[in-house]
Specification:
The protein has helices at about 1-45, 50, 60-70, 80-90, 115-130, 135-140, 210-215, 230-240, 270-275, 285-295, 310-315, 315-330, 345-360, 370-375, 380-390, 400-415, 430-445, 450-470; strands spanning about 100-105, 160-165, 195-200, 220-230, 365-370. With about 475 residues, it is α/β, with parallel strands linked by helices.
Length: about 475
């Protein structure tokens, strides 16, 4: 019995020892799992340069997200990431690919509607011929309808995404948010421009502060190409264009050319005066333009129900020009669903805003101002100036030979454009003399001359600044 009890005690002690060993093993395994999890979490939280020193791989899902972000055309790194990138790479021109920029092309009524669309097409064709030469015929024949420059198979960007075309601008023309005064998109979407995208925009309302604009430039790098025109030539072209028989655009049949209010009850003048106002050009000045406009529009008993277009045909040339010019200076565009109106004042305002934005973000925003007159004088030279600005003058990806070919092609396109209704040219000596006489009257008109002369001065200043900058960068060429 004593031996049996002894054996039982030994067996119990052995079993207890086994339980202790098993418990110890479980504690060790759990500790290792916790340490492994902690190491992975520490790895993810560490800066990129410290991760490379460790052997623990990041989770597969995180890697996929990073590659997806790179391929996503709408992805833009947060401002903090761009600041880190600047520190790591100094963020200088040599290290930036031209697709790291957003390209924002701005034009107005009678400053190059057809021209800017031809230039946008030239950019796309150059990129396709360079990066997709075997498919260029499909793109040129419009068999492959796409505005995206990302290869869906590889995630590689081979061209700019293009936003805005013949029938629709990138954002709503002549519209803005009442709260911020920044341009607004269609369906009231916010104004934002992103890297790797080329925007074609007609008559934007840049009435907001430059700090507000900065938050809209998600690309952090933007090139603005501003198509302007001498305002005296601009309003003359506008009058001749819309008084054609038949008129090229339908909105002139339903417009109130003297309507100055936006849908929020504020006038165009109240939005532009903070930028272009002077002692002479103020609220009272714009009110006098509207009064002059009202004295011409539907003021005669015989024309109470006449349309804007009928006024342009039936009034004498001087009164017709004054009426059309008042509409192009002070009308908001609300009366014709924002298809036209106020583009002289809007252009003057935007010249000032772009200059302020360039000064506020000198390393991030570049502005090139081009004029219709430059393209009429030398379309090839001006096209080369445009392409050098978009791609970079020293760009070896889009060869200089290809850019020369595109520039010469644009010269031919302009020659053809002179036969279209979009380009109004005086053909006879008498017509040219009449046109010059009307321009002389505009220069002395007390209601219209002050704003036209101010805008002319701003246009010339902006063109001079762009020419000086281009010469400094050695991108100004001659054909």
């Amino acid at each position: 019995m004593k031996i049996s009890r002894s054996r039982k005690c030994a067996a119990m002690m052995l079993a207890l020892a086994l339980l202790v060993v098993m418990a110890t093993l479980l504690i060790v395994v759990n500790s290792r799992n916790s340490l492994s999890k902690l190491s992975t979490e520490n790895y993810i939280s560490k800066p990129h340069h410290q991760r490379n020193e460790e052997k623990i791989a990041p989770p597969i899902s995180q890697f996929n997200q990073l590659t997806q972000n790179y391929a996503d055309a709408t992805y833009n790194p947060p401002k903090e990431d761009w600041k880190k990138r600047k520190k790591q790479k100094d963020d200088n021109e040599k290290e930036l690919h031209y697709h790291d920029y957003a390209i924002f092309i701005v034009m107005y009524h009678k400053t190059g509607f057809v021209l800017t669309r031809q230039l946008k097409l030239a950019v796309s064709q150059l990129e396709i011929e360079t990066h997709r030469p075997d498919e260029k015929n499909e793109y040129n024949d419009m068999k492959k309808l796409t505005s995206y420059g990302i290869d869906l198979k590889t995630g590689e960007r081979f061209a700019f995404d293009t936003i805005g075309g013949w029938t629709k601008s990138a954002f709503a023309p002549r519209r803005h948010f009442s709260e911020t005064h920044c341009p607004r998109g269609y369906r009231s979407t916010p104004f934002q421009i992103k890297r790797g995208q080329l925007y074609l925009q007609e008559s934007p309302d840049f009435f907001c502060d430059v700090k507000e604009l900065e938050t809209s430039i998600l690309a952090r790098k933007a090139k603005i190409i501003h198509f302007v025109r001498n305002p005296f030539d601009m309003v003359m072209s506008n009058y001749l264009y819309h008084s054609q028989k038949p008129t090229p655009e339908e909105w002139v049949h339903r417009d109130d050319p003297c309507h100055a209010m936006y849908d929020d009850g504020k006038t165009l003048a109240s939005n532009v005066l903070p930028s272009i106002g002077t002692d002479e050009i103020n609220e009272e000045y714009f009110s006098n333009i509207i009064k002059m406009c009202r004295s011409l529009f539907q003021s005669k008993p015989s024309m109470r129900n006449s349309t804007f277009y009928e006024h342009l045909l039936e009034l004498d040339a001087w009164d017709g020009l004054r009426l059309a010019t008042a509409q192009m200076i002070a009308a908001s565009g609300d009366a014709n669903n924002y298809l036209a109106g106020g583009d002289v004042a809007r252009m003057a305002n935007n010249i000032v805003k772009f200059k302020e934005l360039q000064s506020y973000m000198p390393s991030d925003v570049e502005v090139l101002t081009l004029s219709t007159e430059e393209f009429i004088k030398s379309a090839g030279n001006s096209t080369m100036k445009f392409l050098d600005f978009v791609f970079g003058a020293n760009n070896t990806i889009i060869s200089r030979e290809k850019r020369w070919e595109a520039a010469l092609s644009q010269q031919k396109n302009l020659d053809k454009a002179f036969d279209s209704p979009h380009v109004t040219q005086s053909s006879t000596t008498e017509e040219k003399e009449n046109k010059e006489q009307l321009k002389e009257l505009l220069h002395s008109d007390k209601d219209l001359a002050p704003i036209l002369k101010l805008t002319e001065s701003l246009v010339n200043e902006a063109l001079s600044a762009s020419t000086s900058s281009a010469k400094a960068k050695d991108v100004y060429v001659k054909i």
